[in-house]
Amino acid sequence: MEKPAFLSRICPVCSSKPPAQAAIQSEVTAESLDFDALVPCWNGFFKDKVFFSYVRCGGCGLLYAPTFFNGPQLEQLYGQMPPNMAEVPMKALRRTQHGYFEALKSCSDLDGGFIEVGPDIGLFTENCVREGRYNEYWLFEPNREVLPALSKIVEGHKYHVIHDMFGFSHVLDHAASAAVMIHVLDHLLDPVATLSELRQKLKPGARLLLVTHDESSLLRRLVGWRWPAFCLQHPQIYSPQSMRKLLEAAGFEVLERRKTVNFFEIGFLLKHLLWAFGIKAQSVPSFGRFTLGLKLGNMLTIATPKPGRHHV
Ligand SMILES: [Zn+2]
Questions:
Q1: Ligand 1 centre from 202 Cα, in Å?
Q2: pTM of this prediction?
Q3: Contacts 24+ apart (CB under 8 A), 160-166
Q4: Above 60 in pLDDT, residue 266?
């Protein structure tokens, strides 16, 4: 029996052909294994490191994998996944998301319609409900298990939870004044198409807030190919430069960019830092429940639809 083939990709931002030479590779590459062998590697950021080799696009500088899972394979893999970062305590997660929210608050009026793609249990959304005056919420969340928690947050407001990550047709054109995607764009096979569709739903002057990994960060340069964001879940990883090109291709203009702070308990950090360097420590001292904020190679980008006509 022939194995189902992986997807062959050209650059998802500028459509250039991939260079022959890989820029970042794991010791065992994902493209040398078959799909069944990759399923156990998929779930953990911190287990044995196997990922599809990344090339650097000669046209736009994007770091992307020219060989990757196809759509049905991704559907199967995401369908069996445990919740993201379940190991990080809620208090630390809330502090991280609140930091992202402060960035939206500093550049918008927090009113009108609000779109969020992948809100999970609503740790970002709850800030919007508490401090904002949004009159309608569209929350695109494929995980049905989080529905009770997510609905509770927007209770008493006009809201829609849509169980399709990208069913933007549920939203009227130009209905929203803010759209938020936290750790979503690194996962998409066709980020230009998704952002272009989303743009149609935004008012002139609306704010788009994105949180992604930054492959040009100091942390990534320190740990090399062992950087946790090089993994089977990311068909491409952006830098400030390639993020700008992506947004321009989708009809957006970048207004602001900053490094983000992630909060963790110290014991968690130490364990995963050791893992990143290939040391599999089963337990480390917990150092109590202290929480530490770190700039971990993530970036936050705020963009707005480019004025005037734009063809998709
Ligand atoms: Zn390119």
A1: 26
A2: 0.87
A3: 160/136, 162/138, 164/140, 165/117, 165/118, 165/140, 165/141, 166/117, 166/140, 166/194, 166/197
A4: yes
